Structures are given as structure tokens and as C-alpha cells.
């Protein structure tokens, strides 16, 4: 970061001392984990730049957009219809955090045995670390787990700007009706925030932007099926993570440029690991920046991660929105239908997820599956049993961890033993 953004951070209301510490830790981790990789695609230079300016240039862009009158909407889940945020000409930002910084502050409000993801978004706000939260006009939560539901109540007391979407527990007829009404209600909320009606043309524009990102990410996912893999799992994970807060037009362009390069690497047989290296599919809980621990361990042990069956991965971009709507009613129905295809572990039953994991394993030619769950993330911890049975004879390893580094040695031993079994 070459520009001094201190005055902007002060105006936003960050704790400058805490924030400087966070940026130092992030910079060191990124250098050690990412910049030490060999045979990286040149197209990853853009994403390196994004990380170097994660609280700099991108925050300046959002700050200026806000000053020009645009609204900023922060979300915590892929269930929030991004199309409607973009249709209102608002800035859409994903707010999940992947570091345990701020946990002590969070534990003043929530139990210690709360999942790391909830602790992180609470802690980042309470410790004055997140400029994205400070710039938002609306924070959109959702009822995907009990921990989140109750945390949003507290977060609203702290920020005064939380709106919650009600996700049904079952994909029954009544559940789908409830969700359809929630999408309509969210559109009305966005109209209220933006101060204008959202038209069908607005929604077409929002759908085109969101689908453009998804198509670029789908293309990246397909290219990871090559052997040797043209891109590391670490780099592909980073691209997926950046998709949640970068400008959507620029992100789509730069991801497609990266994919152009990866296609050439596939033709040339150029990879980041030797041909035949163990290919691992990581499945389960989301991984927000800077949660790179498991991927770093897997790839540091000689394997390559070829896919993420996760909200920061396939679950986010697997399905496109049907853009062939001509009326408000059709637009609302298509949006509701698109998001009901998401196979979150909050649903019961959730057999779609089992089918999708097997399909992804075959598409990416994965040799083994590591099922990753954050500690205290009950839905994904519970579903690990069904996933293991569903994948049959495919080598399978359950991992439960948090954002801390204390268990790195233990995880490394378990992963290496798993890879030896595959070999």
C-alpha cells in the first residue's frame, strides 16, 4: 500500500492502532502463504494488488460512491439477492471475516463457544477494524443458523442498521412461498434505502452483472479440472474471496483475463503441481479472508486443492439467475427460484448437497475429499456423516478447526497421513 489512507480511516471511525496491527498481520501472512508460491499465473498479480489495497483503494472507491449518493449494502450470506442490491445502483459488499482478531471484544457480547465466523464479524466491528462495516447504510443478515440469528439482534443494537431475511428450514411448498415473500420484502427494503422504485430494467441490469461474475467463476472452476492443475487452490480460493467485495464489472473482466491465461496453460500442460499430484476437494463451511490455513497445509504437503464445495466457492456461483423475465412478478419468481437452489446445510433434508458434491468430485477428478467445518458450526458438522456415506469409497477426512494457528501442526500431520493413504 503506497498511498497514505490514515486520514480517511480516521474519518470513517477506525481504531488506527488496532487497524495498523491487523494490516501488518495480513501483509505478513499473505507474503508467507501466497507470494512464496511457484509457477503462479501472471493474472494473479491483479488479485495481489487487490489484497495490498484491501483497506485502501477499494475503501476509497466505496467512500467516493457513498459521497456521490450511492448506498452501500453489506451482507453475510450468499442467500441475499445481490441482483436487487445492484439493481438499486448500490454497492454490494460481503462482510464475513476469517481472522480471530477482535474475539475478546466479541466475547463480551456473545458466548465463547460461538463459531469463529460470527465472532469475527462481531469482533472486527467492536475492535474498530473494518472500514467496510463503517461505510454501510444497511447490513443484511439471514436466519441460516441459530448463532447468526441471535448475533444479528446484538449487532443491530450496536450498529442500528441490521435487516434480517427469513430463510425457511425446508424447501417445501410453504417454505418456498415464505422465501418468495422475503425476496419481495427485500426489494421493498432496497427501494426504501435507495429512495426510488426498482424497475424491471434495473433488475435486468443487476442480473446481468451478477451472472457475469458467476460465469467467470464457473469458468475458473471448470479449468481447475485439468491435470496438471493450472492454478493452485490457494489462488483460486482468493479469487472467490475477492468476488465478494470487488467492483463487479472489473472483477469479471480480470477473472476472465486470468482464465484466458489458464486456458493457455492447460494447452501447454503447465501446472502448479506435478501431473498426477493428489487432487483434493474441500467441502463444508465458508472460508473468508484471511482464512487460508487449510489450503496452505494441503498444498504445502504436495497436493493441490481443485475445488471448494462452499459458500466461498461452488455454492455461490453454481446457479445462474434466469434473466428471461419481462414483468415484476416473473423477476421475483426467478430470483426466489435461483436462491432456493442453494444447498446450504441449514435445510432439512438436504440431499441436493450430496448430489452436488458427487457431481463436483467427478467434474474435477478429485482423489479425495476433506470436509471442513468451523468449530461450533453445527449444521456442517452434522452433515459430515451423510456426506461421508454419500461419496462411497472416495477417501474422506473430517476436519474441525477455527481461525487460530494452534492446531496447525496437528492438522498437518492428519492431512499428510490422508495424502499418503490416497497415494
Could you walk me through the main structural features you see in this protein, from its secondary elements to its overall organization?
- With 423 residues, this protein is an alpha/beta fold.
- The chain has 19 helices and eight strands.
- The strands form two sheets. A four-stranded parallel sheet has the order 2-1-3-4, with helices on both faces. A four-stranded parallel sheet has the order 6-5-7-8, sandwiched between helices.
- α3 crosses α12 (233-242), α10 crosses α16 and α11 packs parallel to α13 (248-268).
- The chain is globular, with a radius of gyration of 21 Å.
Describe the secondary structure blueprint for this structure.
Layout: H1 6-12, H2 16-33, H3 44-52, H4 57-67, E1 72-75, H5 82-87, E2 91-94, H6 103-106, H7 116-126, H8 131-135, E3 138-142, H9 146-159, E4 162-165, H10 173-194, H11 200-223, H12 233-242, H13 248-268, E5 279-284, H14 293-300, E6 304-309, H15 314-317, H16 328-339, H17 351-363, E7 368-374, H18 378-390, E8 396-401, H19 408-422
Helix pairs in contact: 3-12, 10-16, 11-13, 14-19
Give a quick set of tags describing it.
423 residues; alpha/beta; four-stranded parallel β-sheet; globular
Strand order of the largest sheet: 2-1-3-4
Based on secondary structure, the structural category is alpha/beta
The radius of gyration over CA amounts to 21 Å
Question: Uncertain runs with pLDDT below 50, 5 residues or more?
Answer: none
| Gap from first CA to last CA | 42 Å
Q: Helical residue percent? A: 40-55%
* Average pLDDT: 96
Overall form: globular
Count the DSSP helices. Answer: 19
* Number of extended strands: 8
| Order of SSEs | HHHHEHEHHHEHEHHHHEHEHHHEHEH
Strand content: 5-15%
Main beta sheet, described? Answer: 4 strands, parallel
Amino acid at each position: 500500500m503506497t498511498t497514505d489512507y490514515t486520514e480517511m480511516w480516521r474519518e470513517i471511525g477506525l481504531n488506527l492502532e488496532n487497524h495498523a496491527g491487523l494490516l501488518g498481520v495480513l501483509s505478513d501472512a499473505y507474503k508467507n502463504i501466497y507470494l512464496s508460491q511457484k509457477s503462479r499465473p501472471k493474472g494473479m498479480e491483479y488479485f495481489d494488488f487487490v489484497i495490498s489495497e484491501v483497506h485502501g483503494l477499494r475503501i476509497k472507491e466505496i467512500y467516493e460512491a457513498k459521497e456521490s449518493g450511492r448506498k452501500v449494502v453489506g451482507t453475510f450470506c450468499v442467500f441475499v439477492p445481490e441482483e436487487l442490491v445492484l439493481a438499486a445502483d448500490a454497492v454490494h459488499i460481503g462482510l464475513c471475516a476469517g481472522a480471530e482478531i477482535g474475539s475478546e471484544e466479541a466475547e463480551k457480547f456473545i458466548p465463547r463457544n460461538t463459531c469463529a465466523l460470527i465472532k469475527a464479524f462481531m469482533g472486527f466491528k467492536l475492535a474498530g477494524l473494518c472500514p467496510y462495516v463503517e461505510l454501510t447504510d444497511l447490513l443484511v443478515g439471514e436466519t441460516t443458523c441459530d448463532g447468526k440469528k441471535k448475533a444479528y439482534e446484538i449487532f443491530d443494537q450496536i450498529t442500528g442498521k441490521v435487516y434480517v431475511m427469513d430463510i425457511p428450514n425446508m424447501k417445501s411448498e410453504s417454505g418456498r412461498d415464505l422465501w418468495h415473500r422475503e425476496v419481495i420484502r427485500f426489494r421493498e427494503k432496497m427501494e426504501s434505502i435507495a429512495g426510488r422504485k426498482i424497475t424491471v430494467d434495473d433488475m435486468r441490469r443487476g442480473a446481468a452483472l451478477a451472472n457475469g461474475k458467476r460465469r467467470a467463476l464457473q469458468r475458473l472452476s471448470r479449468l481447475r479440472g485439468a491435470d496438471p492443475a493450472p492454478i493452485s487452490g490457494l489462488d483460486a480460493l482468493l479469487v472467490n474471496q475477492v468476488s465478494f467485495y470487488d467492483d463487479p464489472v472489473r472483477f469479471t473482466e480480470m477473472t476472465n483475463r486470468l482464465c484466458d491465461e489458464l486456458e493457455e496453460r492447460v494447452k501447454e500442460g503447465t501446472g502448479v503441481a506435478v501431473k498426477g499430484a493428489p487432487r483434493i476437494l474441500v467441502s463444508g463451511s465458508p472460508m473468508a479472508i484471511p482464512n487460508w490455513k487449510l489450503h496452505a497445509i494441503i498444498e504445502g504437503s504436495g497436493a493441490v486443492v481443485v475445488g471448494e464445495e462452499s459458500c466461498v466457492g461452488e455454492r455461490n456461483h453454481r446457479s445462474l439467475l434466469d434473466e428471461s423475465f419481462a414483468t415484476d412478478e416473473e423477476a421475483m419468481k426467478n430470483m426466489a427460484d435461483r436462491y432456493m437452489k442453494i444447498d446450504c446445510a441449514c435445510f432439512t433434508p438436504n440431499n441436493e448437497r450430496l448430489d452436488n458434491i458427487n457431481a463436483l468430485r467427478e467434474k474435477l477428478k478429485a482423489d479425495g475429499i476433506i470436509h471442513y467445518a468451523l468449530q461450533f458450526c453445527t449444521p456442517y458438522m452434522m452433515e459430515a456423516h451423510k456426506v461421508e456415506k454419500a461419496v462411497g469409497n472416495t477417501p474422506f477426512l473430517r476436519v474441525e478447526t477455527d481461525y487460530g494457528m494452534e492446531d496447525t501442526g496437528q492438522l498437518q500431520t492428519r492431512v499428510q497421513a490422508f495424502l499418503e493413504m490416497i497415494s
